[in-house]
Design goal:
four-stranded antiparallel β-sheet, globular
């Protein structure tokens, strides 16, 4: 299951573990991006991304979902 990222602390966890994140409801942000890049965005944009739904990216999860389609 996808793991939602709801806070800056959650995003910091992703950065420290060198994970990628994505926002499936927003065009350009639907592709996985390094959390280290995302955490350096302006605060107003981060709040918007959190509100839209930011998730931890897992290759295994997305491969499994593609097989089910």
């Amino acid at each position: 299951m996808e793991r939602p990222i709801l806070t800056l602390a959650g995003l910091d966890y992703e950065v420290r573990h060198k994970y990628a994140v994505y926002v499936p409801t927003l065009g350009a942000w639907a592709k996985p991006k390094p959390a280290a890049v995302i955490i350096n965005l302006p605060g107003a944009l981060l709040v918007r991304l959190f509100d839209l739904g930011m998730y931890h990216y897992s290759k295994e999860y997305h491969k499994r979902m593609q097989k089910n389609d």
